[in-house]
């Protein structure tokens, strides 16, 4: 998950309304005495003429790991008249303390302390905005929930209002096998890096040992809470939408894993709100792929000027939602650009959207006519899903789904006739089913594909549902084998035009490896066709929107990226292998995220990551996720390494976790520990 800067298409802006001064390091003392490390970019003279502040609050190390990306954004904001501040969360980077888990109340309490600290600085007016992508997008919303007087507006990118529904842990109530262990292993390795002795002095080693001993592998907590309980409700702002009165600008991309939440935020947040969805992966829109990238930092300044300076920029008079309506494409595992046009919506209420309903028939058709009552058997094929791409693409080659014809024989498919007219989709598709199961525990996965006239199948959405969660994700119940039930499978949001002559295809299966951890026994789902088994697509009448097609953004620009020396280039492979003798499938995903040196502070840092997902045909209990990291960090004779090894397996009763951490100083092993935990399966 390298934080890269694709600057080839950026216009580098060096001439600003304000000269920029930088405070490379400053300590912010929390109410309990813990000191957090920060870097500040200021307009020159702000101590005599105070300015509003913009806060980014992350666990990803301001002095090295995010230094490149910080260098193109924070000076840009400072140059436009803002104090821009980047803070390392407690227990990360150069900050003191331990980070025991994601999004804890202590993280939010610290943020409130930071806001109070900002209010007292002679260079700050006391008015603050928060911006962040992913983790920083989450905590911006979580802090806004507290309604601190200093916080006047938020820009949240690639985040969610619901920690259980839309994050790397669970999807549709299913364990997100492709990401839960991977993300835990990522933070396991990231948190194990030490403070910088050039910043904190000789105490760095003692603090490092404490950080290594006390920071747990987060997967143990995540897997302990397998349904939506108070653990997940804490930090999920959808628990009280009425508290969300701070203005929110919600941003994401169709290729990102978090876009569903934007539609909920636009519908339910109480305060002023705007939404922006491009074709992008999990990245800032001025550097994101697939293109087109946009002048997003200019949009941020317009937002900040309106809410923090009281300048009438016109941004709140524009449509509530701006989205890139993608054109149909052939399947590929990487796209540099996606053709399409900008479309606009003045408001959003999901229930009021027009729906195109297709009946699912026993003959394998999707039809607008009513289907006859019949049954269709959905058999478990454990290797179904290997060609689905990654759950949350970051823009590496190989992230996107392959041609879904490779999955077709592993699932049950239902297809329309060629479309008589183009179909314009915007919103959240869903599948309603009536079904029976032969097992008490089961899941169902749905894939929606655009089928070109030549037969190529491009996946445009997918969704999953743990069928033990029919009464909600909070109160799972066993199925009664043979009994009929109804269920709704929510698919990921779409924004696309399906051309005339193309067909739509829905694929259903009781398996989806490695996204869904498999059920404990192979389940056969008997689908009952008729009025209760339908596909619902959110259709948009483009002819009713005269403004569609206009280009509302400036070209991408940013501050100059800081100097860096490439010591090792990035590389990646993503292989799917089949062992004929043992009937075993292996997805092997390796990323060398490269190694860099930052001349400004002399820091060198690099990382490699390998994730291997293994399963045997006919044996759901053979599923294994195995994630390893190697990270290096140092300068001159201060050289550190962190190695982690994380495994997850299961039998019918329990999940088994094993996490090993090793730390090295100048090639000498200075710390080693293994965490082992057994966690009962809870309707998973």
Work out the helix count.
Answer: 10
Total count of strands: 35
Portion in helices = 10-25%
Low-confidence stretches: none
Query: What would CATH call the class of the largest domain?
Result: Alpha Beta
- Oligomer description: single chain
CATH architecture verdict of the largest domain: 3-Layer(aba) Sandwich
Q: For the record, give the distance between the C-alpha atoms at the N and C termini, rounded to a whole number.
A: 28 Å
Judged by helices, strands and strand pairing, the structural class is: mainly beta
Main sheet record? 12 strands, mixed
CATH superfamily of the largest domain: Alpha/Beta hydrolase fold, catalytic domain
What does the overall shape look like? globular
Could you please say which CATH topology of the largest domain applies here? Rossmann fold
- The structural domain count equals 3
Features:
mainly beta, Jelly Rolls, 10 helices, twelve-stranded mixed beta sheet, 3 domains, eight-stranded antiparallel beta sheet, Rossmann fold
């Amino acid at each position: 998950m390298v934080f890269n800067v694709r600057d080839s298409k950026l216009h580098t802006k060096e001439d600003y309304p304000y000269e920029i001064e930088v405070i490379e390091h400053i300590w912010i003392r929390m109410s309990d005495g813990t000191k957090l490390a920060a870097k500040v970019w200021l307009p020159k003279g702000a101590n005599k003429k105070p300015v509003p502040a913009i806060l980014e609050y992350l666990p990803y190390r301001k002095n090295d790991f995010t230094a490149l990306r910080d260098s193109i954004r924070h000076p840009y904001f400072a140059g436009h008249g803002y104090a821009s501040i980047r803070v390392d969360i407690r227990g990360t980077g150069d900050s003191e303390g331990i980070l025991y888990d994601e999004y804890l109340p202590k993280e939010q309490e610290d943020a409130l302390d930071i806001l109070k600290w900002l209010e007292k600085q002679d260079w700050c007016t006391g008015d603050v905005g928060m911006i962040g992508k992913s983790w920083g997008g989450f905590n911006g919303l979580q802090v806004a929930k507290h309604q601190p007087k200093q916080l006047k507006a938020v820009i949240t990118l690639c985040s969610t209002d619901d920690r259980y529904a839309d994050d790397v842990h669970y999807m549709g109530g299913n364990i997100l096998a492709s990401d839960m262990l991977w993300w835990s292993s990522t933070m396991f390795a990231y948190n194990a890096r030490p403070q910088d002795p050039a910043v904190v002095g000789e105490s760095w080693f003692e603090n490092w040992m404490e950080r290594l001993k006390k920071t747990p592998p987060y997967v143990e907590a995540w897997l302990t809470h397998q349904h939506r309980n108070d653990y997940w409700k804490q930090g999920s702002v959808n628990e009280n939408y009425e508290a969300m009165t701070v203005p929110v600008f919600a941003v994401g991309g169709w290729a990102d894993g978090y876009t569903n939440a934007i539609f909920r935020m636009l519908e339910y947040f109480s305060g002023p709100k705007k939404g922006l969805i491009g074709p992008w992966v999990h990245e800032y829109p001025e550097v994101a792929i697939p293109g087109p990238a946009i002048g997003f930092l200019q949009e941020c300044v317009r937002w900040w000027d309106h809410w923090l300076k009281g300048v009438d920029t016109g941004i709140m008079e524009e449509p509530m939602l701006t989205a890139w309506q993608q054109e149909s494409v052939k399947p590929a595992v990487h796209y540099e650009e996606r053709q399409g046009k900008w479309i606009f919506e003045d408001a959003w209420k999901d229930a009021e959207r027009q729906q195109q309903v297709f009946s699912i028939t026993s003959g394998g058709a999707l039809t607008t006519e009513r289907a006859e009552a019949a049954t269709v058997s959905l058999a478990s094929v454990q290797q179904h899903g290997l060609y689905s791409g990654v759950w949350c693409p970051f823009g590496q080659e190989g992230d996107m789904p392959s041609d879904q014809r490779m999955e077709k024989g592993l699932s049950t498919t239902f297809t329309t006739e060629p479309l008589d007219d183009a179909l314009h989709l915007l919103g959240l598709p869903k599948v309603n089913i009536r079904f029976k199961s032969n097992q008490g525990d089961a899941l169902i996965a749905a894939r929606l594909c655009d089928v070109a006239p030549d037969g190529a199948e491009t996946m445009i959405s997918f969704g999953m549902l743990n069928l033990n969660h029919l009464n909600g994700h909070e109160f799972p119940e066993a199925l009664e084998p043979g009994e009929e039930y109804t269920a709704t499978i929510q698919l990921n949001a779409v924004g696309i035009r399906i051309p005339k002559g193309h067909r739509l295809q829905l694929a259903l299966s009781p398996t989806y490896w490695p996204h869904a951890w498999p059920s404990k026994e192979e389940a056969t789902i008997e689908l009952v066709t008729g009025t209760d088994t339908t596909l619902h697509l959110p259709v948009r009448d483009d002819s009713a929107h005269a403004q569609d097609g206009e280009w509302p953004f400036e070209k991408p620009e940013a501050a100059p990226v800081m100097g860096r020396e490439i010591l090792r280039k990035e590389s990646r492979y993503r292989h799917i292998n089949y062992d004929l003798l043992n009937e075993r499938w292996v997805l092997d995903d390796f990323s060398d995220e490269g190694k860099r040196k930052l001349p400004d502070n002399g820091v060198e840092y690099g990382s490699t990551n390998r994730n291997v997902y293994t399963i045997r045909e006919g044996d759901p209990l053979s599923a294994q996720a195995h994630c390893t990291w190697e990270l290096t960090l140092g300068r001159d004779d201060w050289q550190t390494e962190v190695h982690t090894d994380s495994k997850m397996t299961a039998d019918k009763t329990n999940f088994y976790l094993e996490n090993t951490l090793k730390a090295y100083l100048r090639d000498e092993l200075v710390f080693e520990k293994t965490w082992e935990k057994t966690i009962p399966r809870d309707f998973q």
